[in-house]
Design brief:
Helix content: 40-55%
CATH class of the largest domain: Alpha Beta
Order of helices and strands: HHEHEHHEEHEHHHHHHEE
Strand order of the largest sheet: 3-2-1-4-5-7-6
Strand content: 15-25%
CATH topology of the largest domain: Rossmann fold
Distance between the termini: 30 Å
Radius of gyration: 24 Å
Structural class: alpha/beta
Amino acid sequence: MKHWSNYWTSSNTLNSFAESDAAKGYTGAIKEYWFNVFSNLKANSRIVDIGCGNGALACLAVEYSKQHHLNFEVHAIDAADINPLEALKDNPETLELLQDITFHSSCPVESLPFKAGSVDLFVSQFGFEYADTKKALQQCHLALLDNGTINFLAHHPDSFISTDSNAGAHLFKTILHNSPLFIQIDLLLDIASQVQTSGQYHTWNQNPYNLSISRTIKWILDKLKSEFSEDKYAAWLQDLFSRVIPVLQNVGKSEPRSLRNHLSQQFQILDEHNIRLQEQINATLTNPKLRSLEKYAKSLGLTASSSSFLIEHDPFAWSIEIK
């Protein structure tokens, strides 16, 4: 869970799986979907956002409540160690919404802090499916009011997010753990440190070890460009290269030990991203998983319905409602 805690506390984004303006919160068809869900609630309803991250969905609930003067009581839980008010303190507009949310950090859905029959609506976008879904559903069932509802959007195996995550995970696994790229760069920096200690750093460009290892690194980079030349890998490869190329460009100019520490930090950032991608892939609701969840809901006396939520005619997520 540390990898998610690091992501949310160091990120100034409201939600994961978003880029550019989408990182500021849900908009367009997604916002419309959730506003339609909220429209079924009465005033003073209690809403709980599961797997809230930095609060994108909870913020929508607050926004809807303010627009319609409904005084929703909005809670947001996440198994990770989160602190949205600190992470987004430099965004006044978002901060105003976040201040109306009660956040429950390090709170897995399998151990809800709510009394039986106290919640009108559980919501989640790309959160519920990361939990033990049967235990999570059982906990939500206990906390729901008799006429309460669970609505969530879950990862769909045919969505762009799933396709993109599979590509990123494959690239990261190959480069971080099955290629010698980082090992060779680290070796180069280790030798640079030794050369600096010997007082010969000014001759680094002529150093035979530098010339030999640099040729090897260039060969590795060229091989990786060729192996991951398909468009689906482009953004992932560009991100990884943007982290290592500046390190190589600064050997001979900057302190080698600092560069080595920076390289280690970049490896950790990428590896944590890889872990998050792998967890997303594992959490994706395949058809058998979805049918199993619906069957378990029925065993609890609940009814479950699901459909593909489309954006521009393409699957974006599963839309699931459980009553």
